[in-house]
Design a protein that fits this description.
198 residues, alpha+beta, 10 strands, four-stranded antiparallel β-sheet, single chain
Length: 198
């Protein structure tokens, strides 16, 4: 059963792979500074501008994408009842950096635990990674996959990484220790039909 949505804000990153538009949504908590851009509240009470949070996430994940993947865009949204209202938008600077061609209809899913031990599913579509199945250790994989997994667990030096600011649907931060329960490399059924792979 899905966690009840109580998070109030989210950052939506939109990116295009081989003509198909994909979106990644990361929930967060708005806490604006006195001046400047809207900001998100990090887990220690500090502020990160929403664009820096989006750039930090996309700047890490873009290494899993082929060089043909252009800069993504980001939208900062606020929930009002059942409706998400746009607050601000931006174009993100990073482009794909992997020379490997994209894997059609491929889906990577990280299963991450929040502080209430509920699941957050971080799903990125049509990266350059092969269809290799599941890993519950999230180690020994490609350097890019290892780095993304580490950033969800605050390992390594990642600027404005999702661990600092991303929340679950239930409005909880990512678990501080052992957050990543596993990662799966699979095919997305909808994209299989769209790419003519069925």
């Amino acid at each position: 059963m899905a966690t009840v949505l109580t998070a109030t804000h989210r950052i939506t990153i939109s990116y295009i792979v081989a003509g198909s538009l994909h979106k990644y949504r990361a929930y967060c908590k708005r806490q604006d500074p006195l001046i400047g851009d809207p900001a998100v509240l990090d887990r220690d009470g500090g502020l990160i501008t929403w664009t820096d949070a989006a750039e930090g996430l996309w700047g890490l994940v873009n290494q899993l994408y082929n060089t043909a993947v252009a800069a993504a865009s980001a939208l900062f949204e606020e929930r009002s009842g059942a409706v998400w209202l746009p607050i601000a938008s931006a174009t993100l600077a990073a482009v794909g950096t992997d020379a490997t061609p994209y894997a059609p209809a491929q889906q990577i899913t990280w299963v991450i635990r929040d502080t209430a031990f509920k699941k957050i599913r971080a799903v990125w579509l049509e990266t350059s990674q092969p269809y290799i199945g599941h890993s519950n250790t999230v180690t020994g994989l490609s350097a890019g996959v290892n780095q993304v997994g580490a950033a969800y667990q605050e390992e390594g030096a990642f600027t404005n990484n999702a661990f600092r600011w991303q929340k679950s649907r239930g409005d909880n931060y990512i678990l501080a220790t052992g957050a990543v329960a596993g990662v799966t490399f699979d095919l997305n059924d909808k994209l299989k039909r769209g790419r003519g792979l069925e």
